[in-house]
Every structure is written in structure tokens, then in C-alpha cells.
Write a structure and sequence with these properties.
alpha+beta; 7-stranded mixed β-sheet; 12 helices; 19 strands
Length: about 500
Amino acid sequence: MVLSPVQSPDEISSSFISSVFASRYVQDPLPRYRMPENSIPKEVAYQIIHDELQLDGNPRLNLASFVTTWMEPECDKLMLESMNKNYVDMDEYPVTTELQNRCVNMIANLFNAPLRDSKQAVGVGTVGSSEAIMLAGLAFKKKWQNKRKIEGKPFDKPNIVTGANVQVCWEKFARYFDVELKEVKLSEGCYVMDPKKAVDMVDENTIGVAAVLGSTLTGEFEDVKLLNDLLTEKNKKTGWDTPIHVDAASGGFVAPFLYPELEWDFRLPLVKSINVSGHKYGLVYAGIGWVIWRSKEELPDELVFHINYLGADQPTFTLNFSKGSSQIVAQYYQFLRMGIEGYKKVISNCMENARILRKGLEKTGRAQIVSKERGIPLVAFALKNKNKRSAFELSKALRHDGWIVPAYTMPADLEHMTVLRVVVREDLGRQLIERLISHINAALSEIEYDAPLVPTPKIAFTVEVTSSDDKDEASLLIPATSIQWKQHKPQTISKAKEVQVFGTKTKGVC
């Protein structure tokens, strides 16, 4: 005989009606900025968060970002399997550490590092190129300071030379680590750093010059070879040994495959370190960057820490400590899976799609292409009418179709230029490019293309609030002399204005 518990009709009914949207949790408000008192079912928690995240933009249509938004399912699976491994636990996860070392050596060889041993490249995986740049900059600063100390010279005013087109992480490095940032201004038609102007700004306190391989603004490669030659001459004349760092965040996984003859890497003697983003054209999801040094001598020993409380002696040179292993594993998967042949095909496809987009924009008759054909797969363009508002209106109009295309003003001395930028990634195929062109054409026909800019009037005034005998009413008194309407000439309002305020508080902002 089998004995089983008897369920009440209500219990039987609730066992069948298990829909998330039939629960009270999706009706009752849950706290947003404090932890709730009680638990909720896992299905409900998932659904609530999942539903809210649907209001985000579509990553595949986010053409503002260089960051990879698609990987193969097999790589997704590997990343999921590695999520619970803390990368910093090298003794516990020696294979993961070995995969990182293999990646470092593969990248060093790709960048033509002069390795004495094919397994002894000097570099480290980082959260992204921002951290990689901080580490490279710190190595430059510490090495410069050590030399100045030996020479008995002041070492308290270091500076670094960059173009005004660098990514904001360079400004962060300068501000966080007390280094003066000397920027080479851009000029009309030249949207990257001029090597001659950069070398002219170098002095005895310059810890290094940063060149960009793939400008964030236009995708253009800076002339690292010319910079190396000019700086070599200056170093000989002055006795300095000012080095070069190459910020190859965007172009480091483009140039070796499309332009192997281009000299920008460790083939140039003054290039001492290079950073590259694995999560851009390295084809890995966000969260992986790399910094490679020319040799061990370029990384001062005092910047490397040694720990043993995780099981064995472990050298570490990062700004972070704990971090996931998934991106390291994913990068190794891409190197192993794609090889040089695969990367060439992917980047070539991206460049071809960028060419199609460029041609489509030119056919509109309204777009002026700002980016160069030789660079990273990116199309930057301005609208010919010079109306700043039109570019922002086009960006907003494309949002209605799901596209995220940023509009931005150029840096100092070029603020009059407003540019739109489309980053062509692996998952932006021919069909999507053609659809984007059609949506741009439709949006251009809708916006007020030639409408003149109307200046927005500004009003400055002070107010005086006085109470009345009636507790439920008060008056907002604006003195006659407090308002000046400036259009062509100042004009003072002749009479005071009174605004009735009910309930003793105003709604909105005065």
C-alpha cells in the first residue's frame, strides 16, 4: 500500500499555475536601492532582470563600440566553463596561467619582438587597454626617475607627449600618476599626431612619446616610423633616450594581417612597449587587453610584486588582483581557432564592408568622409552643411531604427567639426551595411538639413518669495530690475511680475 500526502484544492491549483507573471512579485513594487527583506523565487528574479535589460540597446547594432559583440558558441561554452576560476590563483590553475603565457608570446611574435627565447616574451593580460596603458606608462615613469636619480637631476616633473586624439585613458594616466600631458593639437585635414610637432615638444623631462595605431576619432594610423626616425635624431643630439609606446588598442590586430610591411612595432628600435585590446579586433568579448614589452630590461623590477600566500611564488604586475579567467581562455581559443589565415579573412571582410559603407555615404551627396581608407575598419564622416545640429539629429533619427551611431565634436582647434562614426565589426555583415545605408538616406531626408541655427535665449534673474496672510497662498515676486533680456541690446522689464504659488511649494524647478 502506498501512502501519499493529500493536497488541498488550493495547493493542487497552485502547483499547476506556476507562471512567473501570475505571481505577486511582478505586481508588487520591489526595492531598487536597498536589499529586499525577503527572498523571491529564482525564476521571478531572472524574469524581472531579464525584462528590464530588454530596454538596453542591441549590442549588434551598437556601431559606436569597437568591442566584440559576437563569438562562436564553442567559445561561449569555454568561457562559461571558466567563469568560476580566479585568474590570479596561478598555482591552483596552472593551465590557465600557461594559456595566458602562450597568448603573450603569440602577440609578442606577431609584433616582431626581439625574443632571445621563443617562450620568454615579457607581457601580461589586463582588463583592457586602459589598464595596459597605465602599466606601460608606469614603467616609463619609473625608468626615467631611476635614471634621473643616478644622474643627480630633479625627477619630480615628468611629462608625456601624445596627440590630442588619444583616448581618455591617457588623460587618466597623467592625472592619476602625476605626469604632465603634453598634447599635439590637431589641424584641418590632419586628425592625428604630427610626428615633427611631437618631437619638438620632447624635453629632458619627457618619459616617452605615445603614438596611436588606429585613432579613436577617425581610425587612422599615426606614422610611427617617422616618429622613430625623428626622435632617434633628437636623442643623439641631446643625449636623451626618450622611448616610444604604441597604443595599438584598435589597430594591433589589424595592421599585422592587412599591412604586414608597415613598420610600427618592435622592428623600430625606440618602440619599447605596445598595448592591444583583445576585446576589439582580437575578437573576444569585453574585458581583455594586453601589454607587451620589448625586453625584460624595459620593465623595472620594483614594479613587479611577488606573493606566495596562494601556494607558490607568483610575480604580479597589474592594477587589479582578482579577475575571471574566461577572457584569457577565449583569447587563446581565437588564436588557436583562427590562426593568421582566419584573422586575415575576418579583418579583410570588415574592411570591404567599410568600403561599401563609404561608397554608400558618398552617393548621398551630403556626407564628407573624414576617415582614411588605410587604417582600421571604421568610417567617420561629417555632413557637408557644417550645421552641428544636423549630425546630432541624424544620430538621434537612426536610433528609431535601433542603430547606435555616435555624433561628437573633434578635439581642441577642431571643435567646429562634428563627426559621426561607424565601427565595422565582424558581425556587421553586408546585409546590415546595406540596410544601414538605406536608413541613413531616409533619416537625411527627414531632418531639417539646411535649417539655420537659432540661438537659444538666456534669461538670468533673481527671485524674492514673500508670504501672504492666506496660509495656502504665497506670491513669487520678481523685481523689475532683476530680469534682463539680452537679444540685440539689454532690455529691462518695466513692471514687476507676480506668480501665485499654491500650497506654499512650487512644482518643478524655478
